[in-house]
Amino acid sequence: MEQRTVVIVGDSLFAESLSQMLAQSDRVVVAACVSTLEAALAIIITHHPDAVIVAVTDRMADHDYSQLIAAQPDLPIVYADVNVDSVQVITSHRIGARTADLITALAELPKRS
User: How many Å apart are CA 106 and CA 82, to the nearest integer?
Assistant: First the structure.
């Protein structure tokens, strides 16, 4: 199976533990574990990771990902909250400015429950 490179963002024991756990896997390469999204941007430019994992604790639950999404629109952000038993994957896709493209993109969205 192909290795995936990730950058972990978080300033907590949760982020450090997640980094150590993933580093033990032969399927994941942890390029860096940094404390801020701003620090992650510099690492992303040089390491070209497959995803960014944001290790969330209560004190950093309200982050603005717009700068990261604008700089790297095709880079998935995996939002891992220590208080929740699931992860959220945030992605961004650019589409053309034509109305037909927007309608097609909307038609292909998954149905919400």
Answer: 32
Residue ranges of the domains in the chain?
4-107
Contact (Cβ atoms closer than 8 angstroms) between residue 50 and residue 4: yes
Taking the CB of residue 70, how many other CB atoms lie within 10 A of it? Answer: 9
Q: Which of 51, 48, 4 is nearest to 28 (CA)?
A: 4
The string of pLDDT tens digits covering residues 16-40 is 999 999 999 999 999 999 998 889 9
Q: In the CATH scheme, what is the code of domain 4-107?
A: 3.40.50.2300
Single pTM value for the model = 0.79
Summarize pLDDT for 40-53 with one digit per residue, the tens: 999 999 999 999 99
Selection from 41, 43, 33 nearest residue 8 by Cα: 33
